[in-house]
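Students often ask what a holo structure prediction actually looks like on paper. The answer is less mysterious than it sounds. You provide the chain, you provide the ligand, and the output is a string of discrete structure tokens encoding the 3D arrangement of the protein together with zinc ion.
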Amino acid sequence: MKYRCGKCGHEEEVSTKSFQCECGGLWILEYEPILKKEDIDRNVWNQFRYHRFMALEGEEWREVTLGEGKTDIVKDGDLLFKMDYMMPTLSFKDRGAAALIAHCKRLGIEEVIQDSSGNAGNSIAAYAAKAGIQCNIFVPEGTSPKKIEMIESHGAKVDIIPGSRDHCAEAAREKAEKEQIFYASHVYNPFFYEGTKTYIYEVFEQLKRIPDNIMIPVGNGTLFLGIMKGLEDLKRSSLIEKMPKIYAVQSEGCNPLERAAKEGLNAPAKIIPKKTKAEGIAIGIPLRGEEILKYAKKHQVQFLTVSENIIGKAQSLLAQKGTYTEPTTAAVYGAYLEHQKEFEIGECLISLCGAGLKGK
Ligand SMILES: Cc1ncc(COP(=O)(O)O)c(C=O)c1O
Ligand SMILES: [Zn+2]
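The corresponding structure tokens follow.
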């Protein structure tokens, strides 16, 4: 199986240890499965029940899994909440980390480095621990102490990097390159998306259809890209006739993709990120921004921003419904509350993607 460089088209075996092409382009995994009901592995009670539709070589996932996925969908009026905060490390990132670390295990990797605002680092640390892989996570200053405590509890080394989230990513890349450590990045490594796409496979298996509207938080776009891939797989396999309406949510203080879409740009707009409660989507320079915008154009994705003062209220409202989620998750619900009338959004799927217990 091969990666293709998104910039120069160069092809490379997926067994490569390089996290990007020599030209600086990002790897893309063009894997286009045909989904068939009878190919779901019903003996597997986690997201790897879809392993026949995932680009994984080998069966390392059997020893790496922590029981991620298979989350319920809970109805609340017009809203369908997918309970993805009920995961081994309490966020949807476990879907991606399980697939990526299974790939690392397959390659015989013994040490990984990663950067994260918290949740992805948490997931990678947990799955690396399960797989017996050494792990070093870089987090930006200001990351919640609870998240740091959880990462360290898995035996990972945590480096707190002063400055922005984007600077933190640069520091991790530098160390990975200098010390030749495998960069298990949820942004760079396409295998992460092989995990996040199971979100949509599950929705289809559960509901036997895809709801008309789907709202997705977008920082680096790991859930967004997984969902778009999963939907395209369903369409290619003639299981759905048309794509649902996708709403991609950014915070008003950090909206490089929303602005790019509004201004008709092919790359993320240059912005200076402001502080936001939604730290999970506070990404000023989303590296797969061009890829996200390409999908957005192809499928008429509507970008929305959520106002900062709504996020806390939305978090309380969700808690009053019995779901204690983190501000980044509440930001999506907040965007729904803010824009539902304007866009006449009917039945809508929202991921409750991160638990409040970890937050500040
Ligand atoms: C709870 C939660 N929701 C959404 C996101 C956004 O994911 P992405 O940056 O991949 O778009 C994150 C990222 O850390 C997160 O932790
Ligand atoms: Zn290239």
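The radius of gyration is 19 Å.
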